[in-house]
Amino acid sequence: MPFALLKFGINKNFPFERHADLQAPKALGSSYDVVIIGGGGHGVAAAYYLAKYHGITNVAVLEKGYLGGGNTGRNTAVIRSNYLTPEGVHFYTESVKLFTQLANEFDFNIMYSQRGQLTLAYTDAAVRAFRQRVEVNKHFGGHTELIGPTEIAELIPCLNMHPGQLSVQAGLWHKDGATARHDAVAWGYAKGATQRGVELHQLTEATDFIIKNGKVSGVITNRGTVHCGCVVQAVAGFSSLLAAKAGFRMPIVSYPLQAMVTLPVKPFLGPMVSSPAHHCYVQQTGRGEIVIGGGSDPYPLYSTRSTLDLKESLLASTLEIFPFMANFRLMRQWAGITDMTPDYSPVMGLSPVENYYLDAGWGTWGFKATPICGKTMAQLVASGGKVPELIAPFSMDRFEVFRQVNEMGATAASH
Question: What is the CA radius of gyration of the chain?
Answer without folding.
Answer: 22
